[in-house]
Amino acid sequence: MARSEVCELCGSSDGVSVVELPISDGSEDQSVYLCANCKTQIESGDLDENHFNSLNDAMWSEVAAVKIISYILWNKLGRQDMIEMMYLEEDELALAQQAINAEANKVTFRDANGVELLAGDSIVILKDLDVKGAGFTAKRGTTVTRISLPHDMDDHVEGRVNGTKIYLKTEFIKKV
Q1: Helix orientation angle between 64-76 and 90-104, rounded to the nearest 10 degrees
Q2: What number does CATH give the domain 109-175?
Q3: I want to staple 61 with a disulfide (CB 3.0 to 4.6 A). Which of 43, 66, 148, 161 is the partner?
Q4: Does the pTM of the predicted model rise above 0.90?
Q5: What pLDDT sits at residue 4?
């Protein structure tokens, strides 16, 4: 079978799609083919170790991206014994470590209900908020579209209310 017909981690042919490594330059060399099951588990972070026993074979792949994603997944599963058995070239190991460090430093934004917020989402304001310096109140029930997420604080989002760009505390908003 061609590289794109089966999951490069578990061998399944169910819903296979191409997925870039967490740290990627967008090239095919830094992409892997994953089945729907592997992709869903990796994206959610809820990994079934039994399912990923298939990494025992995948970690020996000749495809660098497959070795790198195997290394990252073994790390997430806490399987230091498997990591120690792997061999990665220096550049492959550096990329894997970059991805692991980026994941550890990733800031997650959550609304008042604990729902994850992403850039571009729409939110609703849960209570009347006085906007300092702008001379108006952001009213409860106001929908703010296309929010952005500031890099320097994880408890605020940025959006436009009454044409003015303001920061809103995440404890006073919910995702639409």
Answers
A1: 40
A2: 2.30.30.40
A3: 66
A4: no
A5: 65
